[in-house]
Write a structure and sequence with these properties.
Blueprint (H helix, E strand, L loop, with lengths): L1 E5 L4 H5 L2 H9 L3 E6 L4 H6 L3 E4 L6 H10 L20 H34 L3 E4 L4 H10 L2 E5 L5 H14 L9 H11 L8 H4 L3 E3 L13 E3 L23 E5 L4 H4 L7 H8 L5 E5 L2 H4 L9 E4 L4 H4 L5 E4 L3 H9 L4 E3 L12 H10 L3 E3 L6 H12 L3 H14 L4 H16 L7
Parallel strand pairs: 1-2, 1-4, 2-3, 4-5, 5-6, 6-7, 8-9, 8-11, 9-10, 11-12, 12-13
Helix pairs in contact: 2-18, 5-6, 5-8, 11-16
GO molecular function, one term: hexosyltransferase activity
InterPro entries: EryCIII-like_C, EryCIII-like_N, Glycosyl_450act, Glycosyltransferase_28, UDP_glucos_trans
Keywords: Antibiotic biosynthesis, Glycosyltransferase, Transferase
């Protein structure tokens, strides 16, 4: 069968899709990856076939413009919000409207027409799209393909969609407003289609989070064991030697330092907080962040990059901002986590807090929010490193992840879905 991977030009979102894409490819299927031109070289570097569509989006330019205009003090709509008294119909409708206007339209509209055009020419049997690339669902409908969403983090999208539908059901029809439906109906209508609820969350959702952590959305689900992928990597010589004392990884994530405002707690405070602990600290910091350091503690090693799937198995703990890739990789290797959402920016809140809280509930880590200081970081990390409970629970989550269906089993399920849809073998003409 022909499979199209659709993603807006966000590197970290795409990298999480690479293992499934390659599993489909090695199963004998034709696979192409469609995104805006800015991501074409990244796609090609993974060995997959890139199809540049449309023009590059301006989302990160908008974020920088908001900062320069002093508009970034307002955190905006928080998709991780869970308090019922806050999540009123009015609040949720206004928040979804903001996301549609300032996020989802911005990253999708520049690629939508060209993506549909390519799909109608190439005729994929299946489209797999990451959760902000609604253009993938619209294009699948326009060419008659099956489609599935592949998550990179907590499914706040599906949870909020379900809540919004329930709140709307309690209103009079004339009072109901659904910004996401309005936009997707107009987008599908451009190509002769119409709104269907599956345009919002796919016909199925591929999710790599274990059941203990995963959000319950009630959506059709394809659980898949996580496969770490950071792109091309070389294991440095120092990493081949076992550490002489507990090793703690500190990482700011793959894209956060570049994309965000840098007004969070920061690498310097994190390193200072660990200077008095009997640990070896390995901090992965881009050159720009390393240049900001005024001092490096004696127990710290600073490197620009180390493949997390090689580094984390040697670690006793990891401290990070809650990035989805770091989070899942640490879980897969049974490493306790200290999550500090404000590590890289004062306003960086998407699913970091949710992921951190759910991990803490399982006893496999800790999350620090509110007024985060170096002293709080040091105390929290010391608790993770002593007693053994966090390590035990982290290993339990690792076992739960290892028991999930592997990527090849998910390929088989996708093949079945496509075969049943078109009534013949996926390997047929």
């Amino acid at each position: 069968m022909r499979v199209l991977i659709a993603t807006q030009a966000e590197k970290t979102h795409f990298l999480g899709m690479v293992p499934l894409a390659w599993a489909l490819r090695t199963a004998g299927h034709e696979v192409r990856v469609a995104s805006q031109p800015a991501l074409a070289e990244v796609i090609a570097s993974t060995g997959l076939t890139a199809v540049p569509v449309g023009r590059d989006h301006m989302f990160h330019h908008l974020l920088r413009s908001a900062k320069s205009l002093g508009l970034d003090e307002d955190p905006g709509f928080d998709m991780a919000e869970e308090r019922g008294e806050v999540l009123t119909y009015e609040h949720l409708t206004r928040g979804v409207g903001q996301f549609v206007t300032w996020w989802w339209k911005v990253v999708n509209e520049p690629m939508l027409d060209d993506l549909v055009g390519f799909c109608r020419t190439w005729r994929p049997d299946l489209v797999v799209w990451e959760p902000t690339t609604f253009a993938g669902a619209v294009a699948a409908q326009a060419c008659g393909a099956a489609h599935a969403r592949q998550m990179w983090g907590a499914d706040l999208f599906g949870r909020m969609r379900g809540l919004h539908l329930r709140l709307m059901a309690g209103r009079e029809p004339a009072e109901r407003r659904d910004p996401l439906r309005e936009w997707l109906a107009a987008a599908a209508g451009r190509f002769g289609g119409e709104f269907a609820e599956e345009l919002t969350c796919g016909q199925a959702t591929v999710d790599h989070l274990p059941g203990s952590i995963r959000l319950d959305t009630g959506l059709p689900l394809l659980p898949m064991r996580y496969v770490p992928y950071n792109g091309r990597a070389v294991v440095p010589a120092w990493l081949r030697e076992p550490p002489s004392r507990p090793r703690v990884c500190v990482t700011l994530g793959g894209s956060a330092p570049e994309r965000l405002d840098g007004r969070g707690l920061g690498a310097q405070d994190m390193l200072d907080s660990m200077a008095g602990l009997d640990v070896e600290v390995v901090a992965t910091l881009p050159a720009r962040e390393r240049a900001k350091l005024a001092r490096v503690p004696d127990n710290a090693r600073i490197v620009e990059f180390a493949p997390l799937h090689a580094l984390l198995p040697t670690c006793t703990a990891v401290a990070h901002h809650g990035g989805a890739g770091t989070y899942a990789t640490a879980m897969l290797y049974g490493v306790p986590q200290l999550i500090v959402p404000q590590l890289v920016t004062a306003q960086y809140l998407f699913d970091e807090r949710t992921l951190g809280e759910r991990l803490a509930e399982q006893g496999a880590g800790a999350v620090l929010t509110g007024d985060v200081t170096a002293e709080r970081v040091s105390a929290a990390l010391a608790r993770l490193l002593t007693g053994g409970e966090a390590g035990q629970q982290a290993r339990r989550l690792r076992a739960e992840m290892l028991a999930m269906p592997d990527v090849h089993a998910v390929v088989a399920e996708l093949e079945k879905a496509v075969s049943s849809r078109r009534g013949r073998s996926v390997y047929g003409p």
